[in-house]
TrEMBL record:
It comes from Cucurbita maxima. One of its GO terms (biological process) is protein ubiquitination. PROSITE patterns: NPH3. Belongs to the NPH3 family. The keyword Nucleotidyltransferase does not apply. This is BTB/POZ domain-containing protein At5g17580-like isoform X2. Keywords: Ubl conjugation pathway. Pathway: Protein modification; protein ubiquitination. Residues 200-462 form the NPH3 domain. It comes from the Eukaryota. The gene is LOC111473460. Coiled coil: none annotated. It holds the Pfam family NPH3. InterPro entries: NPH3/RPT2-like, NPH3_dom, SKP1/BTB/POZ_sf.
Length: 569
C-alpha cells in the first residue's frame, strides 16, 4: 500500500465538500489528511495547534518517527476504519499512538488502549508471538524503551524461559559438564509430551532478533536464574548463524559485515556465563580463531583464552594450532596465545593427576606439530620445550616426546650452528628418556657433539644400574661380601669410565682447537712455516677423523668431507 512514489496514499479517504486538509510527507511518502479528524484523536496535535503556528504542525508531522505503513494505519483508524492488528504491527502502532497522544483521556476507545490491550491479551501469552512482535521494535527501539514495551517483551520471554528452558534450544548433549548437578539435569530433562509434539510446534528462535535486542534479552536471562547451559546453547546458535555460517567461503566480506560479525563475537563472549564446561574445548577454540580473524577487542580474546584454560585437559593438539596474522598478512601459529592458555590452566587447576597428565601429553603433541614449521624461531621453540618439560615433571611421562620434537626441529632447520643446536637442546632432560630413545640419540648425527657425549655417558650409567639390579635379584645367590666386592669394582670401573669419558671429551676439544688453528694457517698461506711437530699432529688428526686427502703444498685445493669422530674404538 505504501511506496516511494509521488502518489498520495490517502486516496482512499472520504472527500467531504468543506474541510481543511493537511498535506505532508512521512519519510518521503505523501499524505493528505483532514485536520479536524486527526485533531479529534491526537492530543499532541491539539497541543501544537494551540501553542504554535500551522508551520509547526507540518514540521512535527514530517519528523514523525514511524514507518509510512504504520502512519497509514493510524490515519485509517482516525477515519473510522477497523484495524487488523497482529504481532507485526501492534508495537509500532502502540509507539506511534503514544507519540501522538492518542489516549483515552483525550478520546474514548482510542488507539493506544486498543493496541496495548491486544498486546497484553494476544501477544504476551505466546512465546512465538512475543518474539515476532519484539523483532518489530528494531527501528523504533528508543520509543519502545520509553513506553515500556521492550521491558514487557523481555520480562515475558524470561519468565517463559525459566519455566521451560528448552524454548532456548537443546543444550549440547554430547558433552558432559562436571559442574551440572543431578537435580538440575533431572529438572530440565525434556518430557515425553515435548518429544511427541515436537513436529507439530517449534519455538521461535531468538536468533532472528538483531544484536541489540538479543543482547538485552540474554543479559536479563543471566540475571533471572535461567540455566546457564541453555543460555549457552542459545548463544552458540546465534554465533553460528551470524558469524560461523556467514563467514564460510566468504573471503571478501564488506567492512560493514565484518564489523557486525566482530560485534556479535564480542557480545557472545560477554554474555556467556562463567560456569566451566558449557562448551567443549573445540567450540571455544573455534570462537577464538574467529575472534582473532575478526580482530575482536582484547577483552573478548582474553575471555576466551581464560575459558579454554580452565578445561585445557579436554583439548587436542589440533585445537592448539591457532593461526595468527602478522603485519605481512602471512599465516603463522600463535605461540604466545598457546602459552597464555597453558598458564591459565596451571593457575586455576585444582583437579586430579589425570588432568595434569593429559595437558603434559597435549603440550608434547603440540610441540611435535609445530616443530616442522620452518618459520618458528629458536626462542619460541625453546620456550615451548621448557614449558613441556616443566609440565611433565609432576607426572610419570618420559622426555621421549620432547626429544622427538627436537629431532624434527633440527631436521627442518639444518642450517643451525653448533651453538644454536645446543640452545635448542637446552630443555631436554636426558635422565627421563627411555633406553630406546637414548640409543637413538647416541647415533643421531643431527644432535650437537656435546649432547651426544652426555647421552653416551648416561647410557653407561644406565648399563651399570641394570647390572647392579640384576645382581641384586630375588634369587640372592651371591653372598653379602661378594656383592659388596662387586659393587666396589663397579664403582671403580664407573670412576675409570667417567675419567676416560672426560679425557676423551677434552681430547676432542683439543683436536677441534688444533684443527681450527691449522685451517687458519693454511688459509693464510703459511704452510711452510709450520713446525715439524705440528705437521705430525695434523697427520694424527687426519688419521683419527678418517681424512684420506693429502696436502702437497700451500696452493693445493683441500677437499672437505664432513665426518664424525669415533668416540670409542
Amino acid at each position: 500500500m505504501v511506496d516511494k512514489s509521488d502518489k498520495d496514499v490517502s486516496y482512499w479517504l472520504p472527500k467531504p465538500k468543506s474541510r481543511i486538509d493537511m498535506q505532508f510527507h512521512v519519510r518521503g511518502v505523501p499524505f493528505t489528511l483532514e485536520r479536524d479528524i486527526i485533531v479529534e484523536k491526537s492530543a499532541k496535535i491539539v497541543e501544537i495547534l494551540n501553542e504554535q503556528s500551522d508551520d509547526s504542525i507540518y514540521q512535527f508531522l514530517r519528523n514523525i518517527p514511524a514507518h509510512p505503513k504504520t502512519f497509514e494505519l493510524v490515519a485509517r483508524f482516525c477515519h473510522g476504519f477497523e484495524l487488523q492488528m497482529s504481532c507485526e504491527n501492534v508495537l509500532p502502532l502502540a509507539c506511534l499512538a503514544f507519540y501522538l497522544g492518542m489516549t483515552e483521556s483525550h478520546s474514548p476507545n482510542n488507539l493506544l488502549s486498543k493496541a496495548v490491550t491486544f498486546f497484553e491479551q494476544r501477544i504476551l501469552p505466546s512465546w512465538n508471538e512475543t518474539v515476532k512482535a519484539f523483532l518489530t521494535t528494531e527501528d523504533i527501539i528508543q520509543q519502545a524503551v520509553d513506553t515500556g514495551l521492550v521491558g514487557e517483551c523481555i520480562e515475558s520471554l524470561v519468565c517463559k524461559a525459566v519455566n521451560d528452558p528448552y524454548l532456548l534450544g537443546e543444550p549440547l548433549v554430547n558433552f558432559v559438564n562436571d559442574e551440572l548437578s543431578e537435580d538440575d539435569e533431572f529438572h530440565h530433562k525434556p518430557s515425553a509430551r515435548r518429544k511427541l509434539f515436537v513436529s507439530e510446534w517449534q519455538s521461535e528462535d531468538l536468533t532472528i532478533l538483531p544484536l541489540s535486542l538479543y543482547e538485552l534479552t540474554i543479559h536479563s536471562m543471566n540475571q533471572h536464574a535461567v540455566p546457564p547451559r541453555f543460555v549457552a546453547a542459545s548463544l552458540l546458535k546465534y554465533a553460528k548463524k551470524w558469524v560461523f555460517c556467514s563467514a564460510k567461503g566468504d573471503k571478501k566480506m564488506s567492512v560493514c559485515k565484518t564489523n557486525h560479525q566482530r560485534e556479535v563475537m564480542e557480545a557472545v563472549e560477554r554474555l556467556l556465563p562463567h560456569q566451566k564446561g558449557l562448551f567443549p574445548c573445540t567450540i571455544l577454540f573455534e570462537m577464538l580463531r574467529f575472534a582473532i580473524h575478526l580482530e575482536a577487542n582484547v577483552g573478548c580474546r582474553n575471555g576466551l583464552e581464560l575459558r579454554i584454560g580452565k578445561q585445557l585437559d579436554q583439548a587436542t593438539a589440533s585445537d592448539l594450532l591457532i593461526p595468527s596474522r602478522d603485519y605481512a598478512k602471512e599465516m603463522h601459529y600463535d605461540i604466545e596465545c598457546v602459552k597464555r592458555i597453558i598458564k591459565h590452566f596451571y593457575r586455576d587447576y585444582n583437579s586430579n593427576m589425570e588432568g595434569l597428565t593429559a595437558v603434559a601429553r597435549l603440550i608434547e603433541e603440540f610441540l611435535i606439530e609445530v616443530a616442522s614449521d620452518r618459520d618458528l624461531e629458536i626462542s619460541a621453540f625453546v620456550s615451548l620445550v621448557e614449558m613441556s618439560s616443566a609440565a611433565s615433571m609432576g607426572t610419570d611421562r618420559s622426555s621421549d616426546g620432547i626429544y622427538r620434537a627436537i629431532d624434527i626441529y633440527l631436521d627442518k632447520h639444518s642450517y643451525l650452528t653448533e651453538s644454536e643446536k645446543e640452545e635448542v637442546c637446552r630443555g631436554l632432560d636426558y635422565h627421563r628418556m627411555s633406553a630406546e630413545t637414548c640409543e637413538h640419540a647416541a647415533k643421531n648425527q643431527r644432535l650437537p657433539l656435546r649432547i651426544v657425549v652426555q647421552v653416551l655417558f648416561l647410557v653407561q650409567l644406565q648399563l651399570r644400574d641394570a647390572i647392579t639390579r640384576e645382581m641384586q635379584g630375588p634369587d640372592n645367590r651371591l653372598t653379602q661380601d661378594e656383592v659388596e666386592k662387586d659393587e666396589r669394582e663397579l664403582a671403580l670401573n664407573d670412576g675409570v669410565q667417567k675419567s676416560e669419558m672426560e679425557k676423551m671429551s677434552n681430547k676432542v676439544m683439543e683436536l677441534e682447537k688444533e684443527c681450527h688453528m691449522m685451517r687458519k694457517e693454511i688459509e693464510e698461506g703459511c704452510i711452510h712455516m709450520v713446525k715439524k711437530e705440528k705437521t705430525s699432529m695434523w697427520r694424527e688428526m687426519k688419521r683419527k677423523f678418517g681424512c684420506i686427502n693429502k696436502m702437497n703444498n700451500c696452493n693445493c685445493q683441500v677437499k672437505k668431507k664432513k665426518v664424525h669422530p669415533k668416540l670409542w674404538p
